[in-house]
C-alpha cells in the first residue's frame, strides 16, 4: 500500500477526479452498490458511465469496469432491476467510448475478508475458497453453469485478489482483448 496515493473523489462529480486522469495508461472503476431501483441505476450505471466518459475525454487509452455476471434465474432481473439496468448502462457506455480498449469484468460472487465495522471482519474466504477450488476442478462446471435455474450453482466464486489482478491487466495490458472477461477468465488471475 506504500505505492498507493489515496484521493477522495465522487464518480458523479468528474471535477473531483478529472485532473488525475491525463497521462494515465488506464483506468478502473469498481463503483457499485445496492439500494432501491433508482439508487442502483445511479450508482451502478450513471456513476460508472460518467467515469468512463471522463476518462475518455482525458485521453486515457484503456478502461476496465468491474460489472457483474447476471445469472439465468427467473425473476432475478425483475428483483434486481436497478442493479442490472445500471450495470448494462455502464457496459454500453464502456463499449461505446472504448471499443478498442474497454473490458467489462463479469464476476459472480467475489470473496475475501469483508469489513463489517472497524473491529469486525467476516472471513468469506473460509466459505467461498473451498467452493471456488471445487468448482474449478469440476470438469464440466463451465457447461453446467449455462443451464437454467441451477447454472449459477456451478459458477466459481472468485477471490477479490483475482478480480483486482484481472482489472489491472485489463486496464494496462494492450494484449488483454477488449470486450467481456467472464468469471472463468477472471478466475485464472487467482492462480498467480
From TrEMBL:
Q: Which InterPro entries match?
A: ComplexI_NDUFA9_subunit, NAD(P)-bd_dom_sf
One GO CC term, this protein: mitochondrion
Recorded superkingdom: Eukaryota
Protein name, UniProt field: NAD(P)-binding domain-containing protein
What Gene3D superfamilies does UniProt report for this protein, alphabetically? NAD(P)-binding Rossmann-like Domain
- One example GO MF annotation: protein-containing complex binding
Amino acid at each position: 500500500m506504500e505505492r498507493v496515493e489515496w484521493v477522495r473523489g465522487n464518480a458523479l462529480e468528474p471535477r473531483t477526479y478529472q485532473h488525475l486522469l491525463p497521462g494515465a495508461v488506464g483506468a478502473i472503476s469498481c463503483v457499485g452498490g445496492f439500494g432501491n431501483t433508482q439508487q442502483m441505476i445511479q450508482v451502478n450505471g450513471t456513476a460508472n458511465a460518467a467515469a468512463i466518459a471522463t476518462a475518455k475525454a482525458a485521453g486515457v487509452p484503456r478502461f476496465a469496469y468491474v460489472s457483474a455476471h447476471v445469472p439465468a434465474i427467473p425473476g432475478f432481473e425483475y428483483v434486481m432491476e436497478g442493479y442490472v439496468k445500471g450495470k448494462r448502462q455502464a457496459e454500453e457506455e464502456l463499449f461505446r467510448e472504448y471499443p478498442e480498449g474497454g473490458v467489462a469484468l463479469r464476476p459472480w460472487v467475489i470473496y475475501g475478508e469483508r469489513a463489517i465495522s472497524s473491529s469486525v471482519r467476516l472471513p468469506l474466504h473460509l466459505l467461498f475458497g473451498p467452493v471456488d477450488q471445487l468448482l474449478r476442478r469440476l470438469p464440466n462446471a463451465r457447461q453446467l453453469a449455462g443451464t437454467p435455474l441451477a447454472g449459477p450453482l456451478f459458477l466459481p466464486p472468485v477471490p477479490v485478489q483475482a478480480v483486482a489482478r484481472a482489472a489491472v491487466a485489463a486496464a494496462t495490458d494492450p494484449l488483454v482483448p477488449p470486450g467481456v472477461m467472464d468469471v472463468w477468465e477472471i478466475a485464472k488471475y487467482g492462480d498467480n
